[in-house]
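G., before I forget:
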Amino acid sequence: MRLNDAINIEDLHQMAKRRLPKVAFDFIEGGLEDERGLARNTEAFHKHFLLPRYLVDVSKRDQSQTIFGRKFNSPFGISPTGSAGLFRRGADMMLAEAAREANIPYIMSGASNQTIEDAARVAPQNAWYQLYAAKDAAVSDDLIKRTADAGLDALVLTVDVPVHSKRERNTRNGYASIRGNWLQAALSLKPSLLAEAMAHPGWIIEYIKHGGTPPLGNWTPYLPDGATPEETIKFNRAQVPADKQTWKELEHYRALFPRKLVVKGIMSPADALRCAEIGCDGIIVSNHGARQLDQAPASLDVLPAIKRAVGDRMTVMLDSGVRRGADILIALCLGADFCFFGRPTLYGAVAGGLDGVKKAIDIFRGEIDLVMGQIGAPSLDVLGPDFLWQEDWQRNQ
Ligand SMILES: Cc1cc2nc3c(=O)[nH]c(=O)nc-3n(C[C@H](O)[C@H](O)[C@H](O)COP(=O)(O)O)c2cc1C
């Protein structure tokens, strides 16, 4: 299939799968342990039905959404995805550029290959930075300062990685070796990796041409000059997660960062409320795409309770499992102000580089537009529980 022929996110997913060696694709795709959370994230959306209202003028449909005082062209943005450059060279900036062109937010990962300063150059109005706090508080503070100095509008603190999770696919197929040095691993330890690479020449040629595994760009300044990519990865691994981090640190980050502070990975109404009390501007309700705790509920399932707890005190956003424009509209009906997705744009980047990312964004945008027309919602502000079918039909009158 060519990129032009892709009509939905699943098509991009299949194209990405074909292009990458299994070990790399599995890192993107995988959850953890028994991977029950992955299905839960999808099913959470499938449990809801949109209730169409007819005889409404839908000749003009406006899917723009304003959050943090900024109007975006769509109610969605790109979640942070680490090591994206390993799957498609330069992917971080492709995501940034596509977000700028589409006027949606792009959250640069705390484990990105390119830097905060690169993101600010390519997408000054659209890039946010996601912080993985370091064990060394001076490093976290410096990353926050760099985000502020680069002029980015928002800092997103990810809190749902207090410890690493048990990602069994990665362990079984030797993902650590490609984050280290693929060729060395393939030749000396795992000949099967080499065979996989040979079966995916596009990816391996790109890998060799660019000198192997890309560095974790934001972490390089904290290492001696001339540090290798492998050393940046090792350093990051030693520093993250900051397992002693508590609410006290969040208060400190709040005091340090002068613009919008968002907490990502919030799943409990009590934690959401505490974020509001500390003065955070927003949260992303997220189970990290089912990559951290396999027994966690779907983020969509906890969304209504979180919204009830915080009301309009904060911007409430959501990710995990969004694959269709309709999924985004369902989340908005349940109280989200905005949605994000991680894998879909990464599939796009792998499948077709910058054009692939744009394609993923266009697919979501097109689907939202059509479904808004279908349900009789010319703008997003009319959405609410009345657009969701409930067994007790009288509540829909
Ligand atoms: C390959 C990959 C890498 C990720 N890296 C990060 C990361 O560096 N920081 C972070 O906060 N979340 C990370 N996430 C989680 C995403 O930000 C997001 O929460 C998740 O992908 C949403 O689920 P979805 O993929 O079903 O849309 C990653 C997810 C994937 C798939």
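The radius of gyration is 21 Å. The first helix runs from residue 9 to 19.

More on Monday.
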